[in-house]
């Protein structure tokens, strides 16, 4: 095999490259170009070294033993997160009711504060941080990093200033006097929202019970309407806007932003920005045309009579025959003619059809890829551009071949053959050696004597020979694991655990690692096996069952009748 431009001899059952060197991936591991021995399916890389994942962990390129119930890394060092904490590379023992990191040290937040990375002792239950300082939240407020003593009925912050929200309003960092019962902000000004509106940053007094904004002004919805930022008087029962003008839909119509009067118009219609009466005029491509009669209609920008004329793709034609229809932009009589790909052709015979741009009689002829051919024989069919009788001939690719006296005629490329005596393998003919003759890639073989695996032939040996990738094995003595042939293990059923075989009667596969069955109820916990009738798996940790109702709380075991688990914390039931 070729490894980065260097030819190597294939090594082992699963050959692979480690930089320029070949190795067996079943027995070895390649870690950043360095080869090491593979101990089991649990072997992993840590930099250029290997380790067993069930016993060790990789901490920033350093191999550390798994410690405690919840093993984690703190820089290059391992620790048990159930009993310790990592604060910026420093490991501390968990102390107090609520341990937490403050910069590179650990504190109990029930007793201390962490203010911008600085540890401060709590002065009481209401102690909080204001930047790097502490304050009493009961008597003070933190306003943008500045501590202020609370004053007034409803003290709040406005930037770094303190104010009483019952007397003043904070608008974009600026304090204003609170006006009215419902004070709000309009830009940087305060207003009473019970009687005023904020219209595009301007305070306006409400006008009427139903006031709204129209641009920067307020208006009464009951008597006025807003048309593109301009206040207009409401017109009629159904007021609408036409641009910046208001109008009554019962008296006027809006045509492309122009108001038109509906007086003396029976059937109004807009033609561009012009109003027309549909009983007198037509609108043909936004051009007004006077009607010549009741049967007038538009054909593009032109007028035509629907009784005597026909519109074909924007062209006016005189109607012809008893059944006038369009063929492209031309007219034809569908009772006597056909439209074949945009060309008018005469109807031929009893069953006229189109074949491309030509017409033919389907009783005596047929269409083969756009070419008209004679229909003949008992089973007329097409072979590309040629017709033939399928009862006596066959179409092999693009050639018509006579069947002769064959039981099961078939095609092998352009050659005809009898499937009873021969077999076609990728375009080549072979004589049948028996009823189980099959193809293996481009070669014929007897399936009773040989086995085809990934395009390669093997002699059938053993009780029940099968394929394993590009090799063979006997199911009675071996098993195929990840494309590798392995000998059966023990007297029971052999199964695969990744590339490794195991006895399913006495062992089981846990996360790619073979483990012993320790009881009738053996289960897996990560890469280890355990007795599920006596133990439980709690987040990857095996725990002995305790109490009448054993359950897991994160990695710990507890009795549900005595305790309850809330977000990984155990609390005694009242």
Note down, in words, how this protein is organized.
By secondary structure, this protein is mainly β. Among the domains are: 461-532, no CATH class; 534-574, no CATH class. The chain has no helices and 82 strands. The chain has a two-stranded antiparallel ribbon. The two termini are 70 Å apart.
Task: Describe the SSE topology.
Layout: E1 2-3, E2 6-7, E3 15-18, E4 21-24, E5 28-31, E6 34-37, E7 43-46, E8 49-52, E9 56-59, E10 62-65, E11 71-74, E12 77-80, E13 84-87, E14 90-93, E15 99-102, E16 105-108, E17 112-115, E18 118-121, E19 127-130, E20 133-136, E21 140-143, E22 146-149, E23 155-158, E24 161-164, E25 168-171, E26 174-177, E27 183-186, E28 189-192, E29 196-199, E30 202-205, E31 211-214, E32 217-220, E33 224-227, E34 230-233, E35 239-242, E36 245-248, E37 252-255, E38 258-261, E39 268-271, E40 274-277, E41 281-284, E42 287-290, E43 296-299, E44 302-305, E45 309-312, E46 315-318, E47 324-327, E48 330-333, E49 337-340, E50 343-346, E51 352-355, E52 358-361, E53 365-368, E54 371-374, E55 380-383, E56 386-389, E57 393-396, E58 399-402, E59 409-412, E60 415-418, E61 422-425, E62 428-431, E63 437-440, E64 443-446, E65 450-453, E66 456-459, E67 465-468, E68 471-474, E69 478-481, E70 484-487, E71 494-497, E72 500-503, E73 507-510, E74 513-516, E75 522-525, E76 528-531, E77 535-538, E78 541-544, E79 550-553, E80 556-559, ...
Antiparallel strand pairs: 1-2, 3-4, 5-6, 7-8, 9-10, 11-12, 13-14, 15-16, 17-18, 19-20, 21-22, 23-24, 25-26, 27-28, 29-30, 31-32, 33-34, 35-36, 37-38, 39-40, 41-42, 43-44, 45-46, 47-48, 49-50, 51-52, 53-54, 55-56, 57-58, 59-60, 61-62, 63-64, 65-66, 67-68, 69-70, 71-72, 73-74, 75-76, 77-78, 79-80, ...
